[in-house]
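tool_call: predict_structure(chain=1)
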Amino acid sequence: MRSNEFSLIERFFADIGRGEFPVRLSQGDDAAVLDVPPGMQVVMSIDTLISGVHFPEQTSAADIAYKALAVNLSDLAAMAAKPAWFLLSLSLPDDDEDWLEEFSKSLGQMSQRHQIELVGGDTCRGPLSVTIQVTGLVPEGQYVTRAGAQAGDRVLVSGVLGNASLGLAHLQQRVHLPEPLRELCVTALNRPKPRLDLSDFIAQFASAAIDLSDGLVGDLAHILRSSRVGATINQFALPVNDWIRKNDAFDYALTGGDDYEICCTLPSKYQDHLDDWNQAHPECQLIEIGEIIKSDYTLMKGNHSTDLKHWQGYQHFG
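tool_result:
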């Protein structure tokens, strides 16, 4: 690189984001020093996005920055945590200043929107990859895990499923989509919406939750294993676009991945609270797609049932 690591950080990544939580020492030293408010617990998550694996090589710097932070914020949302701080590790093939300017601008906009502050990081030369580690805060004992689902709970998902994987299929020329569906699906792939607005609802009412990164079937299975229960899913209840429904292409929603919506389980006694939420938040409704049962994992399509026990979501090593 023509520029050294420290000049890149100072030029492009100083003063990214501002949050409500205190920072004792931020960028410019060997490590950040942070004050955790009394009565709060720390929730941490980390994800790496690699060019050609997690995003197509032609993806813009702005979209890469957006998605890299969004997928981490989605993990915080699933555990009902509020964003506080993040670290960035960036591997670059060269110090393309136009690319860095676009990346840092988008990262700054995203971090400001969600009130999360960049407190440190690292840059190095290598194949393009972005690693972000986020830290969130949650009132003590109020985090939500994958392990609380019980028989009789409703299975809910936010948003629309399958658009992101359908967008990827279009970019890879495996399917041809009409406009404006094409733009909608590619945007869903490049710019997923972290459902942080759901955090309070999840904290108050959900028995378990997970963000959908590797496909509904595989990710819901994590809840079922952790909670030691089963589930029945109704394919016709899945929130999907008309193209998927018309072409019976539900695999995009079931196993496609990259949705970054929230899947949670809800005790039936909270049905009124769910109705209130959906009425007040038409842009982020929670749709009931099935029920937690004592054992087994089944997809229902009318009167036809499919055993999901051996279905898998996306796997890097498999």
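agent: The mean pLDDT is 91. Proceeding to next step.
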